Amino acid sequence: MHGDEDLPEAPLARLNARPTDAFDIAIVRHYEGPNPYLDREALVFDLSLTGSPPPLPVERYLAEVARAYPRLAGGAFVDHAHLFARLVGEVARLDTGLNLERYSVHPRERADRIAVQAIHRRTQHRAVYLVWDWLEAITQGEPFDRHGQMAELQRTFQRSPFGGPTTLALLRAADQRGIPTFHLGDEGLVQYGYGRRQVRGASTTFSTDSQLDSDFTTRKDDCKAFLHRLGLPVPRGDVATSEDEALDVAEEIGYPVAVKPLAGHKGIGVTANVQGPDELRSAFARASGGGGGGGVDEAAPIIVETSLQGTDFRLLCVNGRFVAAVERRPPWVEGDGSSTVDALIERENASPGRLDTPTSPMAKIIRDEAMEACVAQQGFELGSVPPAGRPDGLAAQGGEPVRGRGQHRRDALGPRRQRRPGPGRGASVPPHLHGHRRRGRGSVPLLEGRRVRDHRDQRRPRGLHARQPGKG
């Protein structure tokens, strides 16, 4: 730990400010744990006024930023430094639900020393400069692309060790319980707590877990054989190391089949309900790339097995107890009779439910070759204009509803048909969509995603007609 004397006060002259800036920032320093300014990880910097131009009154800045962050409206901020610090914490939250409101302001002779709570140095550093640019734009009466800047900040955080939904959920739970957390860069692990009770881990694998057990769960053939020995039903199938072997296995067990990387997790590289040899060749290419972490490699083993119809869930168990479930659902866009499929996707991607943060219920719909093939199966192209659909309609235009293959939320998706015959129906909505708006006659299913459904949190948005739910 370094004392306050280790950080000399910034000189009066402009250090980083432009000639038109009302504020200047200097002496940025990151503390990985408790420090002289906060009892937790923090980013510390000096904020000063340049004097030319003079800043606007605090109330003017507050009125502008409160439009984006209503929680700040009506707040009492004694000076610009307190508003600046509070705004940095609000921006750095990135809609993650983390509490980053802790800050301190230490007035000094020529500047205010501000410490703001942080969980990732680079993200917090960029959040400080985003707030600085935003306030300068308000001072000059100029437009500020907050949405674009926030999107870039989101990408910075998502590339960090904390950017995944699983780690973020753990951090949020630790914060609620007052458990300190640290990222151990050299080890690539996150530490929860201190001393003999500390736990270290990456994602959901911790120092208290058996490495053999964790590795075993990524080997699909061994897991399937183990479940079969326990008397649990498993799909027929076999391992293939080449496209020809995969075709032979599919011919033997019969279509439709599911194609998966042999070693992998989170559904990455998986294609379900493959209907024939042509689709299998594409699925084999995706599985080889998904399992190997790079391009297609015909030597990378994959598994071909019977594709089963039904509702797709991921279950989370902690200490032998079920705590949450993730249901994978296909999003779709509903035609309005005038917009193209591509325009409908763009409109849906701009919806609040698709902020594409680690905690948003849905991710952006990704346009790729697999999705275009899925749309083409229904007689559409991205430039097609689907007819207007009925909100309560049951049948999908051009055939049966098409579901995507299971995979990680940010990877490309492929086609899968979901059959659920009923009286007088050619095709109906999947059974897990009861209680949600059904797609109409002009709707176009696109691809599959996932939605977190946690029995402890029922506040997630519902009723969206195109779903690519949250992350597992």
What would you say this structure looks like, in words?
This protein is α+β, with helices and mostly antiparallel strands. 27% of the residues lie in helices and 20% in strands. The protein is built from 11 helices and 19 strands. Helix 3 runs antiparallel to helix 4.
Task: Describe this structure in a few short sentences.
The chain is an alpha+beta fold and 472 residues long. 27% of the residues lie in helices and 20% in strands.
Topology:
Layout: E1 23-31, E2 42-49, H1 58-65, H2 80-93, E3 103-107, E4 112-117, H3 121-140, H4 146-158, H5 165-176, E5 181-184, E6 189-192, E7 199-202, E8 205-206, H6 211-216, H7 220-229, E9 237-240, H8 243-253, E10 257-261, E11 271-274, H9 277-292, E12 302-306, E13 312-318, E14 321-329, E15 332-334, H10 341-349, H11 369-376, E16 402-404, E17 415-417, E18 443-445, E19 449-453
Antiparallel strand pairs: 1-2, 2-4, 3-4, 5-6, 6-7, 7-8, 9-12, 10-11, 10-12, 13-14, 14-19, 15-18, 16-17
Looking at the chains present, what oligomeric state does this protein adopt?
A: single chain
Helix content: 25-40%
Topology as a string of helices (H) and strands (E): EEHHEEHHHEEEEHHEHEEHEEEEHHEEEE
* Mean pLDDT figure: 75
Task: Tell the overall outline.
Answer: globular
Strands, total number: 19
Number of helices: 11
Largest beta-sheet characterization: 4 strands, antiparallel
Head-to-tail CA distance between termini: 37 Å
Q: Give the strand line-up of the largest sheet.
A: 1-2-4-3
Return the domain count: 4
Low-confidence stretches are 290-298, 390-472
- The proportion of strand residues reads 15-25%
- Given helix and strand content, the structural type is alpha+beta
- Cα gyration radius (Å): 26 Å
